[in-house]
């Protein structure tokens, strides 16, 4: 893949689970670079996410990499479970893990890429010390837990900080944005140097043929 190309990552909690096999196939044919799988525990976020069986099925049948976004308390307990299921990237929230550096190291030790997910209200300074342990940084531009929210503009300066820091010698990570990734926001964030986009109802699902939407986003 072109190192400057976008990573387009459908959020599978927005898929039609009554036709999950067709959804996976159609999204892959449309050019999805990976699948984004949301795990929620009803405690760290006020919602429950995808079922474990559905996540396991997608990991087993997908021909593109799957990442798992753990919106759960004490995410370190589940690292081994999801690497064994085949997750290629695992995101954890520092707000939910008092030992996030240890968890990020455990993800890498288990053979996956380590990612940190950052809530809108979490500052750049709060996560800067652990950035050298990250392969990906997932910036939440909405409060985690629900699809269909509005992009929070106060997060934009933090995105710029994280992109700038990714070019420093001690850091080697890609920035991914999650939340209200509409075509307009994808264009804006691409210009800032964002690499990946989690696509939900703002830019992919419910907007006609997947291939058409994917092509339009790539061409922005």
Q: How much helicity do the residues have?
A: 25-40%
User: What is the overall number of helices?
Assistant: 8
**Termini separation (Å)?**
17 Å
Shape: globular
CATH superfamily of the domain at 7-115 and 125-133 and 188-194: Aldolase class I
Could you spell the SSE succession in H and E letters?
Answer: EHEHEHEHEHEHEHEH
Blueprint of the fold:
Elements: E1 7-10, H1 20-30, E2 35-40, H2 52-61, E3 66-71, H3 79-85, E4 89-92, H4 100-109, E5 113-118, H5 124-127, E6 136-140, H6 156-165, E7 174-178, H7 183-192, E8 196-199, H8 210-218
Parallel strand pairs: 1-8, 2-3, 3-4, 4-5, 5-6, 6-7, 7-8
Your description of this structure?
This protein has 220 residues and is of the alpha/beta class. The protein has a domain at 7-115 and 125-133 and 188-194: Aldolase class I (TIM Barrel, Alpha-Beta Barrel), CATH 3.20.20.70. The chain contains eight helices and eight strands; from the N terminus they run βαβαβαβαβαβαβαβα. It has helices spanning 20-30, 52-61, 79-85, 100-109, 124-127, 156-165, 183-192, 210-218; strands at 7-10, 35-40, 66-71, 89-92, 113-118, 136-140, 174-178, 196-199. An eight-stranded parallel sheet has the order 1-8-7-6-5-4-3-2. α3 links the parallel β3 (66-71) and β4. α1 runs parallel beside α8 (210-218). The model has no long low-confidence stretch (mean pLDDT 94).
């Amino acid at each position: 893949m072109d190192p400057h190309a976008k990573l387009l990552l459908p959020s599978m909690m927005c898929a039609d689970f009554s036709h999950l096999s067709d959804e996976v196939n159609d999204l892959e044919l449309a050019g999805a670079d990976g699948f984004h799988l949301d795990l929620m525990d009803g405690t760290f976020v006020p919602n429950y996410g995808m079922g474990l069986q559905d996540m396991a099925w997608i990991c087993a049948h997908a021909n593109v990499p799957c990442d798992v976004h753990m919106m759960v308390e004490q995410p370190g307990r589940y690292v081994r479970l999801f690497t064994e299921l085949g997750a290629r990237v695992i995101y954890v929230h520092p707000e939910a893990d008092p030992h996030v550096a240890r968890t990020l190291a455990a993800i890498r030790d288990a053979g996956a890429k380590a990612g940190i997910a950052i809530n809108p209200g979490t500052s750049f300074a709060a996560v800067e010390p652990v950035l050298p342990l990250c392969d990906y940084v997932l910036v939440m531009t909405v409060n985690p837990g629900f699809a269909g929210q509005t992009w929070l503009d106060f997060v934009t300066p933090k995105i710029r900080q994280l992109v700038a820091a990714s070019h420093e010698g001690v850091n080697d990570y890609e920035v991914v944005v999650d939340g209200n990734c509409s075509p307009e926001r994808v264009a804006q964030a691409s210009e800032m140097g964002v690499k990946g986009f989690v696509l939900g109802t703002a830019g992919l699902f419910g907007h006609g043929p997947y291939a058409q939407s994917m092509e339009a986003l790539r061409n922005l």
